[in-house]
Amino acid sequence: MVYGLMYRVVYAVTYFVIVAVLLYYLLTGRGYQIDPEWFFNNTTPYMWAGLGIGLAISLSVVGAAWGIFLTGSSIIGGGVKAPRIKTRNLISIIFCEAVAIYGIIMAIVLMGKMGSFPASATYEVLEHNRKSAYLLFGAGLTVGLSNLACGVCVGIVGSGAALADAQNPALFVKILIVEIFGSAIGLFGIIIAIIQTKGAGMGATVST
Questions:
Q1: Alpha-carbon distance 181 to 190, whole Å?
Q2: Are 158 and 70 in contact (CB under 8 A)?
Q3: DSSP assignment of 146-196, as one string?
Q4: What percent of the chain has pLDDT over 70?
Q5: Closest Cα to residue 194, out of 97, 120, 113?
């Protein structure tokens, strides 16, 4: 009931803000700015590249934190009745933390593809930098979302592994195999991002 009311309030406020902004631009004679082409042509490529790098690391950290929260609470709770599970179930925490490391590594890789170009650059150089910036943004979003899903997946499976281990120690290794496959989702995201950014490189020259 409360969540339904909150959802309706947020939806109404968001709808009101969007309509108010649109009316403001239309009534002040700047309706031409409500145009995706105008937006993309007037935003700097550095913004898109920076957003991609930021999303890569921030979403990865959120995924890692979420997974540690899910797993850690189960390890602590199950450890009250079965203290033996606390040590070997820490491997689930390590898997979750690896998700954040994936994001940091990919953010560093994406930062290496950024470079400066003069404001008086030719049209070819400008278009190449725009394309590279969009590729960096897409790669960062891919890594971030993949690691977010990976962190939640590993956290839920790790939570189940801790509780199952508390009941039956023989189940730990079997569930650990599932957890290993879940942690591979983050690696898939990194591989896809590397493929996405092939040939991307911002700078004063056109790189191939």
A1: 15
A2: yes
A3: HHHHHHHHHHHHHHHHHHHHHH-TTHHHHHHHHHHHHHHHHHHHHHHHHHH
A4: 96
A5: 113
Distance, in Å, from the CA atom of 141 to the CA atom of 76, rounded to the nearest integer, reads 33
Q: Report pTM.
A: 0.80
The residue written with tokens 């004679």 in the block is 29
What are the helix (H) ranges across the chain?
Answer: 2-27, 36-41, 45-81, 85-88, 90-111, 123-167, 171-196
**208 pLDDT exceeds 60?**
no
| Cα 167 to the center of its chain, rounded Å | 35
Buried b (16+ CB within 10 A) or exposed e, 121-144: beeebeebbbebbbbbbbbbbbbb
Residue 39 to residues 6, 26, 55, 125: CA-CA distances in angstroms? 32, 16, 20, 19
Phi, psi of 174, rounded to the nearest 5 degrees: -65, -45
* Residue 80 contacts residue 168 (beta carbons within 8 Å): no
Q: How many CA atoms lie within 13 A of 46 on its CB side?
A: 6
Under a CB-based contact definition with an 8 Å cutoff, are residues 155 and 67 in contact?
A: yes
